[in-house]
Amino acid sequence: xxxxxxxxxxxxxxxxxxxxxxxxxxxxxxxxxxxxxxxxxxxxxxxxxxxxxxxxxxxxxxxxxxxxxxxxxxxxxxxxxxxxxxxxxxxxxxxxxxxxxxxxxxxxxxxxxxxxxxxxxxxxxxxxxxxxxxxxxxxxxxxxxxxxxxxxxxxxxxxxxxxxxxxxxxxxxxxxxxxxxxxxxxxxxxxxxxxxxxxxxxxxxxxxxxxxxxxxxxxxxxxxxxxxxxxxxxxxxxxxxxxxxxxxxxxxxxxxxxxxxxxxxxxxxxxxxxxxxxxxxxxxxxxxxxxxxxxxxxxxxxxxxxxxxxxxxxxxxxxxxxxxxxxxxxxxxxxxxxxxxxxxxxxxxxxxxxxxxxxxxxxxxxxxxxxxxxxxxxxxxxxxxxxxxxxxxxxxxxxxxxxxxxxxxxxxxxxxxxxxxxxxxxxxxxxxxxxxx
Length: 437
Description:
Layout: E1 2-10, H1 33-62, E2 68-72, H2 74-83, H3 85-96, E3 100-102, H4 117-135, E4 141-143, H5 151-159, E5 164-168, H6 171-174, E6 183-185, E7 192-196, H7 198-205, H8 220-229, E8 236-242, H9 256-268, E9 273-275, H10 278-284, E10 290-291, H11 307-310, H12 313-324, H13 326-329, H14 335-344, H15 347-351, H16 361-366, H17 373-394, H18 399-436
Parallel strand pairs: 1-2, 1-8, 1-9, 2-3, 4-5, 5-7, 6-10
Antiparallel strand pairs: 6-7
């Protein structure tokens, strides 16, 4: 019997405004509030809310036979709380059915696992706390940012108490092996590894609305038959998707919602198929072997590696400059700085700097709010420069930085005093004019 593990990633970054060189040291607000609110409102209306409504009905109708899993990034959750609390409520209704599992991840959808274990663990704990507070679940399965995984990361995640980790069923890692089985970590076999069947997942996520595709139109009946016809020895088919697939990447007009509505019944009509959450897969199945991943993989682009975020010198420089600040950040207690620190780490900012213009160029340009990767880099570095100044002022480590901090505070006090005096002068002038009248 084959079981289907259906998992959705939900993430929205806090987008930065156009931050000029002359803003450095003068304006410490980095966010494009209009874009963040308007984009979230659009995607919520087109994707999150209607898809959640469909899933809720399917979960209630199938009474435990249909199950799904989600990972909601901390940045997405924060934006829902700010701009669309009804989306949080709709996810809570899904959680209340008892047939939805919420996974753990880094709170800010960061690449920190590549840099620092302590900061990585801190961010994961922050996210798990949020999931517990909102959905009353303590995650036992981990999904790293963009399914990034390596043997070493898996070992770290198991030591943090997680039972399993999701990642991509990359061809260069699997070789002749199939992703349709449960595997385990090469270093620590106690950590189970679920591998995405990217071919079947991409049929929905990327090819569904393509009328030039030989399999178009894709119906739920056809897709269910594909799953049934897979090697009967297959044990689990992991379908990992961006949640925006429904209604945003694949518009309503493509028939994607009708496909989703009919999918569970078309799959469940085959007695050899069922649905399971990741934790149920781990509980039911035994790994057939270890999977060796010495170099990190992801589910991005054809390469399934890290080049979407760290594939050129601009990305490397921005990434390294950011984490050079970590020792000071760990000493910082200023809440606003710590919040900005989290938002600066979102993988999206490095994704915008990608210079791939060939096999995956269209994908990168679709998600990029900047006119070019170079503008994304300059904008990010300007913001990072201002953040560094603020951090140095908050956590000075030498006499020079202390002097700069003192001078900055002195200038702020002077500016406040001038503003106070100007307001008083304006008030007195207005009063004098009234007296003359």
